[in-house]
Protein: PAS domain-containing protein
Amino acid sequence: MSLPQQAFWSAPQAMLVVDPVADRLLEANHAAKALLGGEFDACAAYPFSHFLDDSLPRWASSGDEPLARSSPWSDDLVLLDLARQPHNVEAFAVTMEGGPLLLTLIDRDIRKPRLAEQRLRDDAQPQVVKDSGVLPEQEWQRRLRDNAVAALQRSAGKVSGQGGAAELLGVKPTTLTSRLRKWRIDPREFKHRHNREGAIDLKST
Structure:
């Protein structure tokens, strides 16, 4: 078996060889047979258009294109398996020597949940700040919050006025107040904390 043949049979994507003029399925790899819901002989007993149903007009326009151009693509085909269950697929076509089409089909119903799971995993991973000098939004917000907390600690919970946290941060008091509300930080907590710490210091002297 040649390397291209090995790639065809072992590909995780469904790959089909179709004669668009004769409307025949010429070959199907393992993933394609699983998508179509049967062995090759059972699938090849039908015209390929049998698996397209309402997508037949879109298939016809895509099927004609490779004869004059190269590599058409469609993301709105609905493929029906042998049990007539629909599968939303993306289709990539390449014209082979002699006229047949090599179709690569991606089942969108499977891909979307996988992409969503991957996004969740990516969001759960700590973001690494690279040497580019650009901070991700999440890291930037964390630093803003930490800086505001440090200013409130230094100002004993005072937000505005001379020596207030807003002055220390170089922002308007209204801007800082808005951020504190967003972060659910109560400046009064820092005032009470300062008073408690001061009382302890007095007793210890």
User: Anything to note?
Assistant: The chain has a mean pLDDT of 77.
